[in-house]
Design goal:
The protein is of the alpha+beta class and 150 residues long. It has a single domain, classed as Aminopeptidase, CATH 3.40.630.30. A 7-stranded mixed β-sheet has the order 1-2-3-4-5-7-6, with helices on both faces. Strand 6 and strand 7 form a beta hairpin.
Length: 150
């Protein structure tokens, strides 16, 4: 795999980000990137959105949120969404994106980042555990809250 780099989500790359493919069974765990774009307009000051590029090709997307004033601790420094193109999964793209968000969190003074996921065979749980997240709780809807200490 070639060198990966991040770029801010923009009008020039949002279509490619929204077109990232999924493996069969993953659709139920991932909302379209356009949902993240819409969510970012609600509070652009706390939203952190990046695409992952390999060469000129968008191979991933990550949406983070940094809000130290959030009433919910698990939403102060978190991954809202991470998508990796089906053909690029298992090649370090997701870890690269999560590491970049973790570095951004460190630079902002956070000591941990969190993520919330729904359990399921094709879901992201194994990925998050592989890159160091541990289960720290559950939402009122039964979703898992994972945390990574920085």
């Amino acid at each position: 795999m070639g060198e990966l780099r991040l770029e801010e989500l923009s009008a020039g790359n949002v279509v490619a980000a929204n077109g990232l493919s999924l493996k069969p069974g993953q659709e139920q765990f991932i909302a379209p990137v356009t949902y993240s774009v819409a969510a970012a307009t609600i509070n652009p000051a706390t939203s952190w959105q990046r695409v992952v590029l390999q060469g000129d090709q968008v191979v991933g997307f990550i949406h983070g949120n940094f809000d130290p004033e959030s009433e919910q601790e698990e939403l102060r420094a978190c991954i809202w969404r991470i998508n990796v193109d089906a053909d690029a999964q298992g090649q370090g793209v997701g870890k690269f994106a999560a590491d970049a968000l973790a570095e951004e969190a460190r630079s902002r003074g956070f000591e941990r980042i969190t993520v919330i996921w729904e359990s399921g065979e094709e879901g992201p749980e194994a990925f998050f555990h592989r890159i160091g997240f541990t289960d720290v709780g559950e939402t009122q809807y039964g979703e898992i809250i994972g945390a990574l200490q920085l």
